[in-house]
Amino acid sequence: MNVRIDDGWKRILSGEFDKLYFEHLIHTVKQEYAGTHPIYPPGKYIFRALDLCPPEKVKVVILGQDPYHEFGQAEGLAFSVPPGVPVPPSLRNMLQEIKNDTGTPSQIVGGNLLPWVEQGVLLLNATLTVRAGHAGSHQGIGWESFTDEVIRTLANTREHLVFMLWGSYARRKGAMIDRTRHLVLEAPHPSPLSAHRGFLGCKHFSLANKYLEAHHQTPIRW
């Protein structure tokens, strides 16, 4: 697998790569990709969220659970799909909330969220790989420990970031974030199963931009 990860992340996470759990994790993931069952995203995109958004450029973190598990959807960025792929329901609710919250439609055309990444939005899944057709199939093999460290490192080395934690799985990561240094926004997951329990109407997108502006940062063009 020709995986890529930004040099800045390599540097600040270097201690993690040497840990026993990470060696076991990578061994397990390589075995999965070498097997007969399709694994998503494509191997080269496993660390794509980190590769495209260097640590010093991060302004907002949106945390997903695990990659989309249907063919052609997962591209290594939480909630995002490649151009031309139909918009999944959770993302559709996110785009609806942006319009309702900000009063203007999202700048996103289709479901590809790369324009957000380019502005400093880290679209990180808690689990970075998944078996085709089996949501959550790679939970518990070590990814959570790794992405915990990503969140912890960001929270400890930066100030005035916005963390969007949607759903109980993501909200558990909030325990490692100092809320006197960062804005933590929590809501139910945007999935159709839970969006109407508080995600729709949460106004997280405008709250994030108000916080960024209050700390002399350029708001995100959602």
Most strands sheet: 4 strands, parallel
Q: Element order, helices and strands?
A: HHHEHEHHEEHEHEH
Number of DSSP-assigned strands: 6
What is the alpha-carbon Rg in Å?
17 Å
Helix/strand/pairing category:
alpha/beta
Fraction of residues in β-strands = 5-15%
Oligomer type: single chain
Word description of this protein:
- The chain has helices at residues 7-12, 14-17, 20-34, 48-52, 89-102, 114-117, 143-157, 168-171, 204-214, and strands at residues 39-40, 60-64, 121-125, 130-131, 162-166, 183-187.
- With 222 residues, it is an alpha/beta fold.
- The chain has a four-stranded parallel beta sheet with strand order 3-2-5-6.
- It starts with 6 loop residues before the first helix and ends in an 8-residue tail after the last helix.
- The mean pLDDT is 95.
Short characterization:
The chain has 222 residues and is α/β, with parallel strands linked by helices. 35% of the residues lie in helices and 11% in strands. It has helices at residues 7-12, 14-17, 20-34, 48-52, 89-102, 114-117, 143-157, 168-171, 204-214; strands at residues 39-40, 60-64, 121-125, 130-131, 162-166, 183-187.
Structural key phrases:
single chain; alpha/beta; four-stranded parallel sheet; two-stranded antiparallel ribbon; 6 strands
Q: Which helices and strands appear, and what pairs or packs with what?
A:
Elements: H1 7-12, H2 14-17, H3 20-34, E1 39-40, H4 48-52, E2 60-64, H5 89-102, H6 114-117, E3 121-125, E4 130-131, H7 143-157, E5 162-166, H8 168-171, E6 183-187, H9 204-214
Parallel strand pairs: 2-3, 2-5, 5-6
Antiparallel strand pairs: 1-4
